[in-house]
Design brief:
The structure is a single chain. Strands 1, 2, 3, 4, 5, 6, 7 and 8 form an eight-stranded mixed β-sheet that branches. The protein has helices at 14-56, 74-77, 173-179, 218-250, and strands at residues 61-62, 81-84, 86-88, 94-100, 103-114, 119-128, 144-150, 187-194. The protein is an alpha+beta fold. The chain contains four helices and eight strands. The chain has two domains: 12-46 and 216-250; 80-194, no CATH class. It is elongated and about 90 Å long. A hairpin with a 4-residue loop joins strand 5 and strand 6 (119-128).
């Protein structure tokens, strides 16, 4: 009598083999496509990092005016070093929650009216949480240089802005302008992170704290997806060899 463990295994049915082949082809194609997409994303990210690095270290250029506002985008303009000059609009500060290398606190955003009458919100810098109610030094007169930043509509990652309560978790230019009664048509769709002001008093916001960091794990993801595709090939080889063994055992 032949024990069940020593009896030859039967071939898989044609239907089973076809289904396995289709599943393998689909998985292989999907994993390869995802790996290739990550390679393309990595190339895009490296190009972005190079372009931003060039913008950050370039000499300041005049901030985009109204004629160029519709064409201001993150890809073409964010972190551009710009300069602007005008008069600060008093009593229109907005405090936006911030986490910086100096700790938790607030960004101080103040509108700057330019010579042509248009307005740009300027992030003058960071203040600690315990300075919220303390008197702040008046903004320094003269040109402002800094990095152009794109508006952050809606709110933070976990919390939404509450304009009516004057609680802000992101630098939403349009919402801040509306809450402060600034004419929407005259407010630039971006804001500027001001550079650190030399010789600023202790009561002044600390500028120049912009963090420029782009996560770039696309190579790891690409290797992972291509590795999964390789595992599909290994699985296919195993099935083919197993079918051959079953045929030999049957003979």
């Amino acid at each position: 009598m032949v024990s069940p463990s020593s009896s030859p295994r039967r071939h898989r049915s044609t239907t089973s083999l076809v289904c396995l082949a289709l599943i393998g082809i689909i998985l292989f194609s999907v994993f390869c496509a995802l790996g290739t997409w990550q390679v393309q994303r990595r190339a895009w990210k490296l190009d972005l990092i190079a372009r931003v690095d060039q913008r950050v270290h370039a000499a300041p250029t005049p901030a985009p005016g109204p004629a160029n506002w519709p064409r201001v985008t993150a890809d073409s303009d964010e972190y551009r070093r710009v300069s602007l000059d005008g008069a600060w609009i008093a009593d229109k500060d907005t405090l936006v929650q911030a986490v910086t290398d100096l700790g938790s606190g607030f960004w101080v955003l103040t509108p700057l009216r330019l010579a042509d009458g248009n307005i740009v919100l300027v992030n003058r810098g960071y203040i600690a949480a315990d300075q919220r109610q303390a008197p702040r030094a008046a903004p320094a007169a003269g040109p402002v240089t800094g990095l152009l930043r794109i508006s952050e509509p809606g709110g933070g990652f976990l919390r939404k802005n509450e304009p009516a309560a004057d609680r802000w978790f992101s630098r939403d230019v349009a919402a801040i302008a509306a809450q402060r009664g600034l004419p929407a048509a005259q407010v630039a769709p971006y804001f500027v992170d001001a550079d650190a002001a030399p010789g600023a008093s202790a009561a002044a916001p600390v500028g120049g704290l912009t963090i420029i960091k782009f996560p770039n794990s696309h190579l790891v993801y690409a290797i992972t997806w291509y590795g999964m595709a390789l595992m599909v090939i290994i699985g296919a080889v195993y099935v083919v060899r197993d079918e051959r063994r079953r045929g030999i055992a049957k003979d």
